[in-house]
Design brief:
about 15% strand, three-stranded antiparallel beta sheet, Rossmann fold, five-stranded parallel beta sheet, alpha/beta, about 260 residues
């Protein structure tokens, strides 16, 4: 016991200050892309041509970038002759509906909190069953790290459980392969109603790099209803945590500060 206490005193406090404090993120982080429409000629399709998932499109309204398909690779940035696209370190990426992930000439809409009734049900105790529906383990790893002392997901009343019958919802990663479709449906049906579904990563939102492949279902949305979409390949743990807290109404609607104290 004495050794444990000495080790604890030596290590000091390891849990990050987020969301009460802004997250400390590396400068090289590829966060939310930013498009300078003024620099983008309408007849230029270079960035769209190099995008591996067709996340970029150009029409009469200008450039569109689908965060739900984006792998956050640097191909478009490196190819653009005008420098119209760049990655910022903005970690806030979660959205409540699919169309909100389309960047262009409109302001990005961050995820909205659940209605008051749902917040009363899930706000102080949210149990999630994680389903890896054919993922590469990238998103899964960044979800798992939320349980460590650094992020301490449990301080917000959010926990992962082994059985869907003990869960309030599902957190799904992966493109939903053909072999995992039935398992996902059965797991969803086993969760008591009312329930939530959270899609984490480009694969779970759109199929990611496997879009259009016959052996997968292009994400979760065509199989079960989705309440929260968190893009990335993989999304940073802070991005995932930010999305979860916004869903539960624990974050300000537009800022990165906490809306209130977390339970416990």
């Amino acid at each position: 016991m004495l050794k444990a206490l000495l080790a604890r005193a030596h290590q000091k406090h390891r849990t990050i200050g987020f969301p009460q404090q802004p997250p400390v993120l590396p400068d090289r982080l590829r966060g939310r892309p930013e498009i300078d429409v003024a620099l983008c000629p309408k007849d230029c399709h270079v960035c769209a041509d190099v995008c591996p998932t067709d996340a970029i499109s150009v029409d009469e309204k200008g450039l569109r970038l689908d965060l739900g398909r984006c792998l956050f690779c640097p191909e478009c940035v490196q190819a653009c002759p005008e420098g119209a696209i760049r990655f910022t370190t903005e970690h806030r990426l979660a959205a409540s509906f699919r169309d909100a992930l389309i960047l262009g000439d409109k302001e990005f809409q961050l995820a909205k909190a659940l209605d008051e009734k749902s917040r009363k049900l899930f706000g102080r105790s949210l149990k999630l069953r994680q389903v890896s529906a054919g993922g590469c383990n990238g998103c899964e790893a960044d979800v798992n790290v939320l349980n460590t002392v650094v992020f301490d997901l449990g301080r917000f009343g959010i926990q992962f459980v082994a059985s869907p019958r003990h869960a309030d919802g599902l957190l799904v990663t992966g493109p939903v392969t053909q072999n995992m479709e039935l398992a996902l449906r059965k797991t969803y049906d086993a969760v008591p109603s009312p329930k939530l579904v959270i899609a984490v990563g480009a694969c779970a939102i759109s199929g990611g790099p496997y879009i259009g492949h016959s052996e997968q279902r292009n994400g979760v949305g065509g199989i079960v209803p989705v309440d929260l979409l968190i893009p990335g390949c993989p999304p940073h743990p802070i991005t995932i945590l930010d999305g979860l807290l916004r869903l539960l109404g624990k974050m300000d609607a537009s800022e990165g500060s906490a809306a209130g104290k977390s339970p416990g």
